[in-house]
Amino acid sequence: xxxxxxxxxxxxxxxxxxxxxxxxxxxxxxxxxxxxxxxxxxxxxxxxxxxxxxxxxxxxxxxxxxxxxxxxxxxxxxxxxxxxxxxxxxxxxxxxxxxxxxxxxxxxxxxxxxxxxxxxxxxxxxxxxxxxxxxxxxxxxxxxxxxxxxxxxxxxxxxxxxxxxxxxxxxxxxxxxxxxxxxxxxxxxxxxxxxxxxxxxxxxxxxxxxxxxxxxxxxxxxxxxxxxxxxxxxxxxxxxxxxxxxxxxxxxxxxxxxxxxxxxxxxxxxxxxxxxxxxxxxxxxxxxxxxxxxxxxxxxxxxxxxxxxxxxxxxxxxxxxxxxxxxxxxxxxxxxxxxxxxxxxxxxxxxxxxxxxxxxxxxxxxxxxxxxxxxxxxxxxxxxxxxxxxxxxxxxxxxxxxxxxxxxxxxxxxxxxxxxxxxxxxxxxxxxxxxxxxxxxxxxxxxxxxxxxxxxxxxxxxxxxxxxxxxxxxxxxxxxxxxxxxxxxxxxxxxxxxxxxxxxxxxxxxxxxxxxxxxxxxxxxxxxxxxxxxxxxxxxxxxxxxxxxxxxxxxxxxxxxxxxxxxxxxxxxxxxxxxxxxxxxxxxxxxxxxxxxxxxxxxxxxxxxxxxxxxxxxxxxxxxxxxxxxxxxxxxxxxxxxxxxxxxxxxxxxxxxxxxxxxxxxxxxxxxxxxxxxxxxxxxxxxxxxxxxxxxxxxxxxxxxxxxx
Length: 709
Description:
Elements: E1 13-19, H1 36-42, E2 49-53, H2 60-74, E3 79-84, H3 124-139, E4 144-148, H4 149-159, E5 167-171, H5 184-195, E6 199-204, H6 218-221, E7 225-228, H7 231-236, E8 243-251, H8 255-262, E9 269-272, H9 285-296, E10 298-302, E11 309-312, E12 318-323, H10 330-341, E13 354-357, E14 372-376, H11 382-392, E15 401-409, H12 418-439, E16 443-447, E17 470-473, E18 478-483, H13 492-500, H14 502-510, H15 513-521, H16 528-543, H17 549-578, H18 592-604, H19 609-613, H20 619-628, H21 631-642, H22 650-667, H23 678-708
Parallel strand pairs: 2-6, 2-7, 3-4, 3-5, 5-6, 8-15, 9-13, 9-14, 12-13, 14-15, 16-18
Antiparallel strand pairs: 1-8, 10-11, 11-12, 17-18
Helix pairs in contact: 1-2, 3-4, 8-9, 12-14, 13-17, 14-16, 14-17, 16-17, 17-18, 17-20, 22-23
């Protein structure tokens, strides 16, 4: 089908691409058999409350074994209870002979205490026997139990929090928990922390908590010592995997026609088809799987041993395809799952070629050979996207490149449901922008001429007073950037947020529909400062209401700097590539792509916070969209967003008035509504709007009083 009859992209839009140094550091073990992340976590083993944020495949399960064994043998705890979201993940905590690799003890779970292997699903009727098992375990002298989140919830409900005193409770995939009162596990954790008689280790492969809902309340979270091991450190320290590409691809018509354009049968691929209720779904999942397989080649039957479909592609090669979507025959599905999990095949690259899944093969699914995670349609959860990408980022011999592609339905110009299509598209773009922040090395921001930081290299001639200084810490991949006029956090909590939690703030910003709509599709009517100062400012105030104005402003500035510098670096690289000045793959050392982009951006002029605030954070994303989308569709989307423009809401008017006061303190005059500077004019409009709101409120009050009199 040619592009005139099917305007699907002819290419995948590269949202972000990182190239790594392949130092091997993250997979090298120390004398105790610990890899880099595990060593980092073990150093904090004495803490009562530990939160480990670390990417999929970095070895969190084994890190927990090391910590748990030390707590049981050296810190006086009675037992360790490992809690996982689903039964399949329980196998990650099977027996490990750690002493063979230099550790002091082995990890052992008696068969009757791995409740993930017990028959029956996790629902109240069956859970009774599992709760009994938890009770018996607590009464025994055995040391370790593994169960699901659901079993643990039922057990705490029945036995009470006090039954778990003096135990270690370790929660895997912690982002499933939420501080929402309706989230039982979240409430129970709050009760454990209030009682303060257990040790807690929480682990997550996500860099943000539960999407829009915090996992813990701020007071509870402050009790946790956080260990953050970044995607950058993980990928940079691999032995084989050299690059990771994340991109999206627009299509029109049925998605099964577009899949063949992006599904390269030569790559080991997991395809996640849309949920049957999703807009992209054809409402017949079996048919969708059959059409995807038909697009790959000619069906030749089913392997009787594995249950994999055998398909001969156009080159004559036989592809082995595992169908995890068909659940009509439990025995058949069980055969396929057993074949995929066969430990004897773990290192066999040719065992399976393509896996097609719907709700499975996400977190905890370990197929090291996966090179391409292809997802159709928007996923409602950013953490789910991180988990899916994690399927492709395992290190494996000979695997140099991994990619994640999100196939997104383009809003068709004649389509009635444009709003829904735009909504899904915005969310997919939001997720890809967030992944750029997660994958980028972390920034260390300081005010201009604050001096060099220890552990950072500043290039030839070192740090130069008054110069354009960019420092790089080659061990952690952090980049030190100086910014004129940067506000410095005052409290320890704000300092911690600026160092560790900027991605959380950026996540909230990227989930702000108004910011996304205006920034991407209503650029002509939206000033960058409305996004960087007003929207981001509002988000920071709502997230951290107890912090001072000074701390809130420091966090806002650090978050917008992290986002804008990454985006501008990407834009600088795209422009260099367009002008033929890109760097060849072989010439790249480490994640130089982003670093080169940062240098290009920073070296043009002195960075100051006012300059950063005047950049639309979505400029780079728009540049990609404008090339990728059908022009007619793009114009229609822009028109539908611009039509929604409303007068200045009261909370925004109040924030504009605050900024106007700041302007007056700096300039000795209020902003002028007739100014040629668009931001000054907008602040003046805000002052006028706030005056109108106040006048209306007074008039309403006076009316009420005269009515009462």
